[in-house]
Specification:
Blueprint: H1 2-21, H2 39-45, H3 50-83
Helix pairs in contact: 1-3
Length: about 90
């Protein structure tokens, strides 16, 4: 599972970098967040389709779900580790 999460994160980083770079030819760096766009920026963002953004958002949601599941597993392991003897220690009868 952890390896799948790493692959998914790596793929997502590449996709987001591509989406982030597309508006660059029009002088827009990075995907804007909540700003008012001028005509050049609006034109540049047409290079990124709504469908691509929805797809990327869904991948982010899936990745977050997988990371949350991993977090729960790790917290469980930490709790188990806290109840048992340390590695290399012997249990006392």
């Amino acid at each position: 599972m952890a390896l799948d999460v790493l692959r998914e994160a790596d793929d997502l980083v590449r996709v987001l970098a591509d989406l982030d770079d597309r508006p660059a030819p029009a002088g827009v760096r990075g995907l804007p967040g909540g700003m008012i766009l001028d005509d050049a920026a609006e034109h540049a963002l047409r290079a990124v389709s709504r469908q691509e953004l929805e797809w990327a958002l869904e991948r982010v949601r899936r990745l977050l779900d997988a990371l949350l599941a991993l977090q729960v597993r790790l917290q469980g392991l930490r709790a188990l580790k806290g109840r048992g003897p340390s590695v290399g220690e012997q249990r006392t009868p």
